[in-house]
Design goal:
This protein has a 6-stranded parallel sheet with strand order 8-7-6-9-10-11, with helices on both faces. A 5-stranded parallel sheet has the order 1-2-3-4-5. The protein is an alpha/beta fold. About 35% of the residues lie in helices and about 15% in strands. The protein is globular. It is built from 10 helices and 11 strands.
């Protein structure tokens, strides 16, 4: 099968112990950066005339298709249909966090969602929106754990503190320093950002300028806080939400997207008005008052995906 992508942590977690399935590695896009999988070659028609594509009997599309036009997206699903290759779609993003104008992206979803033989998504709120906007039924699945061994994380929690992680300040992260000043005025908060995002406007707002952290350092740093604030202005779901919950950290989320609905336990999430730092501080205080909430067990998502893949491959074999 082809997973688009295969090398990202989310599909890797799903496929790690998948019996009877061979997942093709992501084609190399840039020999100078072999870990880079985007733009994925399997979205190009030329890929399907290469040797690796000959035995493909299923495609699972996750993300990384926003560079296609709606017309090229239609060509992709038509190509799969012509070859009788079933498409599985996990709708991670109903609003793409990388895009300001969502028009073409929504047009892509209007093509992909009905074309898929099966649709997964990560929250009930997203499933409701898919049904309402696209007339498609989506199965809600759980985001697989990101921190596979929480016990290995250094227990250095500073009770009563919130962490905000800007990374390289991608397009859906609040860039207005007033948000972070208002947050810090209402609750003890520490703001982290990559050094490549350093700007005069944020110079005095960010507490920790740093190079990208490795997984252990990142997990230790997140676990040092009682609450993490997701400073997003758009998007749908968040791997950071899953990572925080793996570490028993509660999460303050904006009222856009489906972030609150993704939480494993409603006691571990509080919603604030997107872009409003004072309201984010109010959400953090609510979570601090509630105390730590251990994560709920995550069902075996690999087993469910394996069931589905086997069923679709079996249907294709009987066609």
């Amino acid at each position: 099968m082809v997973s688009i992508p295969a090398g990202h942590p989310y599909p890797q977690a799903i496929h790690a112990d998948l019996p009877g399935a061979r997942v093709l590695k992501d084609p190399v896009v840039d020999p100078a950066d072999p870990a880079r999988w985007w733009p994925h070659r399997a979205l190009d028609p030329e890929f399907w005339d290469t040797d690796p594509a000959r035995d493909v009997d299923l495609v699972h599309l996750h993300f990384g298709f926003e560079h296609l036009s709606p017309a090229r997206t239609r060509d992709f699903v038509d190509l799969l249909a012509a070859r009788d290759i079933p498409l599985v779609l996990t709708a991670h993003d109903l609003d793409n966090p990388h895009l300001v104008d969502q028009t073409d992206y929504h047009a892509q979803l209007a093509i992909l969602l009905p074309a898929a033989r099966h649709v997964f998504t990560l929250s009930h709120a997203a499933a409701d929106r898919i049904a309402h906007d696209y007339g498609v039924t989506a199965e809600v699945t759980h985001h697989p754990p990101i921190v596979t061994d929480p016990a290995a994380v250094a227990p250095r929690r500073r009770a009563g503190s919130a962490g905000v992680f800007l990374k390289s300040l991608r397009g859906n992260v609040v860039a207005d320093p007033r948000f972070y000043r208002d947050l810090a005025a209402g609750v003890p908060a520490e703001v982290y950002a990559h050094t490549d995002a350093r700007t005069p406007a944020l110079e005095t707002t960010v507490d920790h300028w740093h190079e990208p952290m490795d997984d252990q350092e990142l997990h230790d740093t997140i676990a040092a806080h009682s609450v993490v604030v997701l400073p997003y202005t758009r998007g749908t779901h968040s791997g950071w939400m899953r990572m925080c919950r793996d570490l028993s950290v509660s999460v303050a989320v904006p009222d856009c997207g489906c972030y609150a609905s993704q939480a494993d336990d409603p006691r571990a999430v509080a919603t604030y008005r997107a872009g409003d730092g004072a309201d984010a501080a109010r959400a953090v205080r609510e979570l601090l008052a509630a105390g730590p909430v251990p994560p709920l067990p995550v069902p075996d998502v690999t087993f469910r995906h394996g069931q589905l893949y086997a069923a679709l491959a079996g249907e294709r074999g009987r066609a």
